Amino acid sequence: MHASSETHSVTDPVPALSAEDLLKSVVASLDDNKAEDITSIDLAGKTGIADYMVIASGRSQRQVAALTDYVVKGLKQLGYKSPMVQGLEQADWVLIDAGDVIVHIFRPEVRSFYNLDKMWATDIDDQGEAESGDDTDPRILN
After folding, report:
1. Is residue 66 included in any domain, yes or no?
2. Distances (CA, A) of 42 to 51, 86, 117, 131, 136
């Protein structure tokens, strides 16, 4: 007896999660577990490393580690099996690479030192204008 084309075998691949679903899961997990200053940055057109970056703060190393655990468990519940985690040993700055979404969880002092929010949220055109010291809009001619 042959299986019909509508039957699915156990070996069928799990449908891929969209970047938006990953983003929603990460932000919800961080928010539900009291992360502070959660920022989501759309990386489309800025880099090919991911579609979104999420940056959040935990008040202590213990909270940074706990937030990391909550995010990773949430991703695994969605079917994302292998998020890479770096920095958990020190828990000052933890990076979770979930493919289309990259998550940075910092202690506040470390976050302000590296200032990733500003680096990634600024457009390249804005950086060029800021470096020149000229506040005038180059699109407006006098």
Report:
1. yes
2. 6, 22, 11, 23, 26
